[in-house]
Amino acid sequence: MVSNNLIDAVFQKIEAIWEATVAWPDFISAMRQSLPQLLKTSSKDAQLHWSLLPMLCCGAAGGKTGQAEDISAAWLLFYVAAHIFDNVEDQDDPEAWYAEYGTGMALNTGCGLFFTATLALQNLLSNHKFDSAALEINRAFQKQMLIMSSGQHRDLTLQFIDLDQYWQIAEQKTGAFFELACWSGTRLVTDDLLKLGYYSEFGKRLGLLLQLLDDFGDISPSLKNPILSKPRELAHSFVIAYANTVFSKAQQKSLQDYLVLSMENNSEATRWILNTIQSSGVDLYLLTEIERQRSLALQALNNANPNPQYRDLLLKLVPDLLTQG
């Protein structure tokens, strides 16, 4: 199967970098254990993962998927590293692979993944066929990591956000990171600004769609447990940003007071928040926005006029509510 071969190629690239280093075997083992945690997707094809976006966009734009293996490897490594840092910064429960050793190990492993990603990108520079594109792609990755850190800083320092702030943070983090995946794979084989724009737009809309679907799960008992497990994450979600934008000042104050209580594990406050946001009509608004982002992603992909084989695989990476159960 095509997707199986692509995933295998990405992991072979990563393993080759580790084999060429002098890192301790147990450190490599920790990095290796951290990767499968994020190899989950709501794709209709269980073997597809978002880390394949650079390779699939490269093939869709007229190149060969193998040309973008290093980019997909780097993107996956940055993706997992960012997830680890985010978990620690948000003080989430530790994942099984680092629970015994604590957050120090998690942060060190994330750094290892980060530096492995930079080495994967350096591999592009050794292929003179991609000299110009490789320099642009390397710079784009480093710039995007800085932009994502900026978005995370706002996420960590703002206690409550409105819709404008929500979109700014979402575009700086998820939207731009997925845009980078699609742009970089396409840039490897073309400098056509129109084509690059279409694939960039596809990636951006896909990233925002995934973020909105995740937020929808916070208020939908059919998708997740109705008891909110991470009140701080909810405080920065679309639904609370919506409430902080459209509710009256008095309603906003009550909501914020209950959010503070919920962060102290007050179950009554948590239930009040859930009931309030479920009765506010935000779910219909959010569903409309989810469909809008999905339509924009599909439109951008159609405008790019991709190779049919890779178009079909890219389409499988665009989720809808039916693939989120």
- Coarse structural class: mainly alpha
What is the count of DSSP helices, taking H or I runs of 4+ residues?
A: 14
CATH homologous superfamily name? Farnesyl Diphosphate Synthase
**Which percent range fits the helix content?**
over 70%
Rg, please? Answer: 20 Å
Structure in words:
- 42% of the residues are buried.
- The model is unreliable at 222-227 (pLDDT under 50).
- Helix 7 packs across helix 10.
- It contains 14 helices and no strands.
- The two termini are 25 Å apart.
- The chain is mostly helical and 325 residues long.
List the topology elements.
Layout: H1 2-19, H2 25-34, H3 53-60, H4 69-89, H5 103-125, H6 131-157, H7 163-187, H8 193-217, H9 231-235, H10 238-246, H11 249-262, H12 267-278, H13 282-304, H14 308-316
